[in-house]
Structures are given as structure tokens and as C-alpha cells.
Amino acid sequence: MTRVAVLMGGWSVEREVSLVSGRECARALRELGYMVTEIDVMRDLAALARSLDPRPDVVFNALHGKGGEDGTVQGVLEFFGIPYTHSGVTSSAIAMHKPSAKAVFAAAGLPVAESKLVARDALAAGDAMPRPFVVKPVDEGSSVGVRVVRDGDNDWSAEAREWKFGEEVLVERYIPGREITVAVMGERALGALEIRPTGGLIYDYDAKYLPGGSVHVVPAPIHPHAYRSALDIGLRAHRALRCRGVSRSDLRYDDTEGEPGRMVLLELNTQPGMTPTSLVPDIARSVGIEFRELVRWMVENAACDP
Question: What is the reported pTM?
């Protein structure tokens, strides 16, 4: 019987989200007949090593955010020689650092939003680009800290002085239109889904996790040409970062002047949420892949970096 250790929790701001993902995946794996151990990961390498003894056959990495999604735990698993789900060290580290990922995407010819990297001290000194624009932490997930700055936001300067997400800030041109996300599984773009936030312009933390914060429409009801473009961009982004397993690319679809509009790649998530109602499972289900089968595929395709 295959022994699978599910890593969850962690010490990032996404800890609670990770616990939900991990428990759902562990439940699915048990239903499939795997021998499962759940490990709540703390910032203690010795404790993690003890939890992985005896060595499992596979690690299912359900961690999100810093420590679990940025190449850190991937490096530990490489050292131990334990196959694990999702992308490897380099791909994870680059994807987590948004400016680095954008540079790779641009070099690969993918459409990205204009952006600037701004020092925290300069954030409140004046707008880095014309409004509206988006400010983002350079290396957080789940849209933590993401803020759209619009005309008339007179309180922005005060907020900027209180910025608490690191010494650098990514300032990005706001792209009007619709939120589109694409799931990639191995070398296959599964489909595209439209996210409709119920309370704002973008798919922020509240829209993701508060009840009723958003509506998922799958497949995305957009022009066929735009749909094909979204799948192409998602797969090319996955390949550009040399991801493996499952990834999710987030895009904006600017259809404000009619369809087909233009697609703009925002970022790629190497550790997408994995509850039965998360975005990637929703997309997989729309093409006939149920949650348990998706989780099984991820375990069977676990690996160490080549």
C-alpha cells in the first residue's frame, strides 16, 4: 500500500487555507485506499524530519504561501529524496516571487501587465503610475495585501505608510474586464473558469474565502477565440516556469471594447487551493475529472526535481 504524507498548515498567512486543502486531500486519498499521515508543518526542521520517519513513498504538498510554496519545503524534500506533488524548487521559488515570474513570462512572449517595483519608503511619496493601479506584495499568495488604488482614494497615502508586506512593493497597471483562471494538469490545459467577485473589482482575499464572496462560472462564457487564447497562455506559462503537476494561471480579460478582447497574464500559482470547491477542482470536474481522481493523478505523478 502506498504511504502518503500530506503536508499542511505551515506558518504563512495562508495557514488556515492550507489546513482545509490538506484535510480534504487526505480524506480523498484515504477513500482511494492510500495509507495517509497528516503532518501539520511548523517552522521546525527537526520536527518535520521526525514526522517523515519512516519515510513515506510520496509527499502530498498541501502547503500554501511562504515556506510551503516558495521552494523551501521542496528543497527539504529533495534533500530527503522523497517524491512530492506540484512543482520543484526553482519553479516554485520563481512563481512565488511575482517580479521574477513576470520577467520570465515577458521573455517567453506572454502578455503581462505593465508594472514597477517600488521601495516601501517611496510608496506613500506619490503614485508610481496613473490611477487606477494595483499594489501587491512581491511574494504572498491568496491575494493577501492586494489593493486597487482608484481615482478619489484619498486615504491611500495613509495606507501606504502602514504597508506591512515587505520592503518592496509591486505596482501594476489595473486591467479592466473579467477574472479568468486556467488549470493546467501535466501538459494539458484543462479549461478556463470565470470568477465573478460579488463585492469588488478584483478577486481579493475576501472574495476567495468569505462565504458568497464570488461566483465561479465554468467553462468561462467568453468568445471562443479568447477561450483558446486563455488555455494557450496558461499552458505556455506553466512551461515557461518549467512547472510540473498541477498549476493555475490567473488572467484578466479586457473585453471592455467588445469581444474577443485581450488576455493579460497576472501570475501563476504552483500550489492552488485543493478543496472540492476550489478553482482547479471546479475546472477539472467540468471536463469529467472528479476530485478524488485529480488527487490520485497528483500522487501518481509526484517526483523529485530531475
Answer: 0.91
